């Protein structure tokens, strides 16, 4: 099997090469993202392996299919960048990695919250300049605060557990599916509007769907608790970034920690430190002292990368053997926006 791996980063190369020792496939690592201009590079390959911000629209998939590709293997859970209808009509199979490590994302979420709330990132910059003054670094205890978890699936469930059982927060949750194990440790399920109004801390872990797009908008931010701390490690478009900036400017928010951003495609995952970035909203967000941002990094652990590489290559093996594909995406079976 010849696999063209688009948008390769150093860590992809390392973990896929390692996992491939058990398979012996022919891996071709390409730096470029999959796009209408780069799709022809997959000519002669059996598989195109792609990530969250690669483009796999009809035009691209036609080029892949014409060039002999039979399988598109997403090395991530989200698939909103793939035209599944086109893939099906072109006879292309599409697989993904539905769950690789909820621990990676939930632990990073707690890390972001603690860093933001206790101003650890700001303290580190000061100490590196031999500035050991503490003025301006006063934080707040997590213990006893009201934390609202939107979406208590694999990741949100772990976050709710850590906040409740680990830190002693009062935890409110909102999810159409109630997790009784969380209820048993004292997590309280409430309506979404109640959660958004009553929580001191809100952390987002639901998928992006038409219904959850801009779940946090100007109206919600206006009705929220003063000094709300907002954390998003799910999908950028859950938050209306322009409304977020207005709330920050009005000094209504205690802090915001973001690992995802609604216009992150074409920006995140690349070193743009010598470039001029045209995105004014992103640039404005980065100027607030109470905003902490990372570039879609929550998944990035050795365990998650190992699981992603192994699951992806196992799907390729099953495909080459003509076996049913466990993680195949079909248009009819899709639920939009998983991460
Ligand atoms: P999951 O499918 O296990 O859990 C999602 C939960 O959200 C489910 O319990 C579902 O019932 C609930 N939900 C659906 N609609 C809702 C709504 N309108 N309001 C409240 N809850 C709702 O997914 P998992 O694995 O926990 O992932 C959650 C999200 O994390 C993904 O959708 C993805 O966007 C994001 N993610 C981010 C990563 C990163 O590196 N930053 C990596 C992996 C996932």
TrEMBL record:
<dbReference type="GO" id="GO:0008720">
    <property type="term" value="F:D-lactate dehydrogenase (NAD+) activity"/>
</dbReference>
<dbReference type="GO" id="GO:0051287">
    <property type="term" value="F:NAD binding"/>
</dbReference>
<feature type="domain" description="D-isomer specific 2-hydroxyacid dehydrogenase catalytic">
    <location>
        <begin position="4"/>
        <end position="327"/>
    </location>
</feature>
<dbReference type="Pfam" id="PF02826">
    <property type="entry name" value="2-Hacid_dh_C"/>
</dbReference>
<dbReference type="InterPro" id="IPR036291">
    <property type="entry name" value="NAD(P)-bd_dom_sf"/>
</dbReference>
<dbReference type="InterPro" id="IPR006139">
    <property type="entry name" value="D-isomer_2_OHA_DH_cat_dom"/>
</dbReference>
<keyword id="KW-0520">NAD</keyword>
<feature type="domain" description="D-isomer specific 2-hydroxyacid dehydrogenase NAD-binding">
    <location>
        <begin position="110"/>
        <end position="298"/>
    </location>
</feature>
<dbReference type="InterPro" id="IPR029753">
    <property type="entry name" value="D-isomer_DH_CS"/>
</dbReference>
<dbReference type="Pfam" id="PF00389">
    <property type="entry name" value="2-Hacid_dh"/>
</dbReference>
<dbReference type="InterPro" id="IPR058205">
    <property type="entry name" value="D-LDH-like"/>
</dbReference>
<dbReference type="InterPro" id="IPR006140">
    <property type="entry name" value="D-isomer_DH_NAD-bd"/>
</dbReference>
<comment type="similarity">
    <text>Belongs to the D-isomer specific 2-hydroxyacid dehydrogenase family.</text>
</comment>
<protein>
    <submittedName>
        <fullName>2-hydroxyacid dehydrogenase</fullName>
    </submittedName>
</protein>
<keyword id="KW-0560">Oxidoreductase</keyword>
């Amino acid at each position: 099997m010849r696999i063209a791996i688009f948008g390769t980063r150093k860590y992809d190369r390392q973990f896929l090469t390692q996992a491939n020792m058990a398979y012996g496939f022919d891996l071709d690592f390409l730096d470029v993202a999959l796009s209408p201009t780069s799709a022809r590079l997959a000519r002669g390959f059996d598989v195109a392996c792609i990530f969250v911000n690669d483009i796999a629209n009809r035009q691209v998939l036609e080029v892949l299919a014409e060039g002999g590709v039979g399988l598109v293997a997403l090395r991530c859970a989200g698939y909103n960048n793939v035209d599944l209808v086109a893939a099906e009509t072109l006879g292309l199979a599409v697989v993904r990695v539905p769950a690789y490590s909820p621990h990676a994302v939930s632990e990073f979420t707690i890390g972001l919250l603690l860093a933001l709330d206790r101003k650890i990132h700001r303290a580190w910059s000061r100490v590196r300049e031999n500035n050991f003054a503490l003025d301006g670094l006063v934080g707040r205890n997590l213990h006893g605060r009201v934390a609202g978890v939107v979406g208590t699936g694999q990741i949100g469930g772990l976050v709710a557990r850590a906040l409740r059982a680990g830190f002693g927060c009062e935890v409110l949750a909102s999810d159409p599916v109630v997790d009784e194990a969380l209820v048993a440790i004292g997590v309280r399920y409430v309506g979404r509007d109640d959660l958004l109004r009553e929580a001191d801390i809100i952390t987002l872990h639901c998928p992006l769907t038409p219904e959850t797009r801009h779940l946090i908008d100007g109206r919600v931010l206006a009705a929220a608790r003063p000094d709300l701390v907002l954390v998003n490690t799910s999908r950028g478009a859950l938050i209306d970034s322009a409304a977020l900036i207005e709330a920050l400017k009005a000094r209504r928010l205690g802090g915001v920690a973001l690992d995802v951003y609604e216009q992150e495609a074409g920006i995140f995952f690349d070193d743009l430190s010598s470039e001029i970035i045209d995105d004014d909203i992103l640039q404005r967000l980065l100027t607030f002292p109470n905003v902490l941002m990372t570039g879609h990094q929550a998944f990035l652990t050795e365990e998650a990368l190992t699981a992603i590489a192994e699951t992806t290559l196992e799907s390729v093996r099953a495909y080459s053997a003509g076996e049913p594909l466990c993680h195949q995406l079909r248009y009819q079976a899709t639920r939009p926006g998983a991460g």
